[in-house]
Amino acid sequence: MPSPSTTDAVLSGHRARVADATITAMAGPDARLREDQRSAVAALCQEASRVLVVQATGWGKSAVYWAATAIRRAEGDGPTLVVSPLLSLMRDQVVAAARAGLRAETLNSANIGQWSQIEAALLAGHVDALLVSPERLANPGFGARVLESLAGRLGLLVIDEAHAVSDWGHDFRPDYRRVSDVLQRLSPATPVLATTATANARVTEDVATQLGASTVVLRGPLARASLELSVVGSLSPVERYSWVVDHLPQLPGSGIVYTLTVADAERLAAAIRGVHGPAVAVAAYTGQLEGPARERLEDALRANELKALVATSALGMGYDKPDLGFVVHVGAPPSPVSYYQQVGRAGRAIPRAHAVLLPSEADAGVWDYFATATIPVPEQVERVLAALSSEPTAPAAVEAESGVRRGRVELLLKQLAVDGVVERVDRGWVRTEVPWSFDASHYDAVVAVRRREAAIMQSYIRGERCLMQLLQESLDDPSAAPCGRCSVCRGGLPGPVAADTSPGTVESVTRLLRGQVHLLEPRKMWPGGSFGARGKIAAEEMAEVGRTLVFADAPEWRDSVAEMFARDGLATDEVKQACVRVLSEWRHSWPRRPEVVVDLPAAGFTTLTRDLADHLAGTGRLQRSSVRVGRPLRDTAQLGSAQEAGHWRDYLELGEQVGAVDPAVDGRAVLLVVDATSSLWPVTIASALLRRAGATMVLPLLLHRRP
To answer: How many CB atoms lie within 10 A of CB 43?
Structure first.
């Protein structure tokens, strides 16, 4: 059990002078460590200390570990190892350390060319601090080259955003549990600092227990006096977009607009630019961006060159802009803890900042997914383990052999590695002799906790009591009390976030988003495994780049999608006209004009797909043919790529004989109309089938690319 939130350590003499000099160099001549920060630094100057700091964002946790690093380096100790989750935090901290006269380096995907030089400098004693991601800790090459040589001589280990160590936390990452491996390699005398702003009592206890029985917990009040929390309810998805478009120019300073998905971030940024143009500069920021692009956008927001970044949670922990004026959420995160962490980006060094939540009735479905997304499914685990042996196996091969989708395979391997059941080596993963068993009671409890957190978010959305107090209570903050500033305490919304949304804006946003072009890139590789064929799909069997009408959960099409797929009926005039518009714009880039329309009811909507294909054929004066599903459709959502590809290969039929030349398509360009899919395997297999039957090219038109 952790010790009380106190420490008897005192920072004095030479150590105090080094700490003060470090802080003034970093933050200016008037900057000083506060007493609570001095207590943490003093504790870290003691051998074998374990300190867990749970403090509000903006409290100054990094100041603690830089002051402690400066002291320990001045006394001849080894370098500090900082385990940090995001490149943005690493980059900021390298700059901050330089101001203090410390040399900090980072090893990440953005500076691979410098790794050898940095590692050599580290081992030579020229580096004061090394910042790495938890994924880097799990890399066997890094462990062999760096960690083994540092074992026993690290001066300090820092675990930033330590709530991610606990699977009770809102952002559990299996790779973070590898920190325990580092602890085991350390000299027992090496002090350890863990920091977070988002740990409730249960997470705090779990992390403290992992650090050691003597862990000192330094916990402070979590209320943020500068934040004005508001909830704007009763908006449809497209109205939420329109609210942001209307209100963004009036919000103070610059800020962040969070969305739950990559598609939402890109669509909303496009809508803002489409209405306001360069007058309101925004950009989409997601995990799909390369490191240099992320850095440019972070710097642009920090320099107020952008009004806002429209971002997923990829822009979260670690991004530091003290004068951030607002944080808007389009859709609610699944946990009040993660919501607190994200809104905490705003108002760190200014007296007033807005945090606005625009909830959606669809949020609950997203929350339910996140509640169980990381929980192992025993049957999947057994299949993954059966695909492994003592010889290294790559995740792609595990997917092909097990039939479990790649993303799920990679998550399960990381989770199994935490328990020592598998091990990552240079050329893949191997099975160890450690047996695996499913701890059902533990995972049931984790899911129950996450669902209780979702219930708290529902209370927040309904405004049942002070919003800041509710967030504090979700983090077990004993100082929780009504804030007097939120929309509940004030009895209404403050001026800049008033709920009015212009009907004209809703119409403009809908029109803009429906006019977007969604490219449908063809799959380029066969999956191998049970499918058989592997490697590149031959050019003579591959589809051309196609088009998608509705991408993911597009708000501009929400009602139409619900109507279209509620039952298998005729296509609406709205959908028919939209598809004709897509084709009209697409025709300028066609390698060849299609001559025959082929329908493929991949999701089972035979009447819908046939009716739309008939309409397009009549409008364009094209011939007609079909790809038939030879057997009843099977739910392919949980199948791995090899199994799903094999399913479509076995069930699709063209003409009288599968694979035979079909007079309807022989020598012709084909427009392939498909109702819905998420994986694109039915499009890929049907395109290969049509090409083998004589089609000169296949141009896919997909009604709905499901998320």
So the answer is: 24
Residues 420 and 524 in one domain: no
Question: Residue 570 and residue 605: Cα distance in Å, rounded?
Answer: 10
Residues in contact with 76: Cβ distance below 8 Å, sequence separation at least 6, in sequence order: none
Query: Can you tell me which residue has the tokens 């630019």?
Result: 273
Render pLDDT for 267-313 as a digit per residue (tens, 0 to 9). 999 999 999 999 999 999 998 998 889 889 999 999 999 999 999 98
Does 417 lie in the same domain as 347? no
State pLDDT tens for residues 600-631: 999 999 999 999 999 999 999 999 998 887 76
Tell me what the mean pLDDT of segment 125-139 comes to.
87
* Cα–Cα dist 361/204, whole Å: 32
Q: Cα separation of 107 and 135, whole Å?
A: 11
Structure tokens at 228: 């004005």
Task: Report the CATH number at residue 395.
Answer: 1.10.10.10
Tell me whether residue 425 is in a domain.
Answer: yes
Distance in angstroms (rounded) separating the CA atoms of residues 507 and 556: 10
Q: What is the total count of domains within the chain?
A: 4
Q: How confident is the model at residue 2 (pLDDT cuts 50, 70, 90)?
A: very low
* 465 and 548 inside one domain: no
State the CATH number of the domain containing residue 38: 3.40.50.300
- Give the angle subtended at the CA of 339 by the CAs of 334 and 342, to the nearest 5°: 135
Q: Are residues 399 and 481 in the same domain?
A: no
700 plus 638 within the same structural domain: yes
- How far apart are alpha carbons 98 and 102 in whole angstroms? 5
Q: Are residues 205 and 125 in the same domain?
A: yes
- Count Cβ neighbours within 10 Å for each residue of 506-536 and write b for 16 or more, e otherwise: bebbbebbbeeebebebbeebbbbebebeee
Length of the chain: 707
Of all residues in the chain, what percent carry a pLDDT higher than 70? 95
- CA nearest neighbour of 357 among 376, 339, 380: 339
pLDDT at 152: 82
State the DSSP code for 147.
Answer: I
- Range(s) of the domain holding residue 432: 379-437
d(CA 59, CA 160): 14
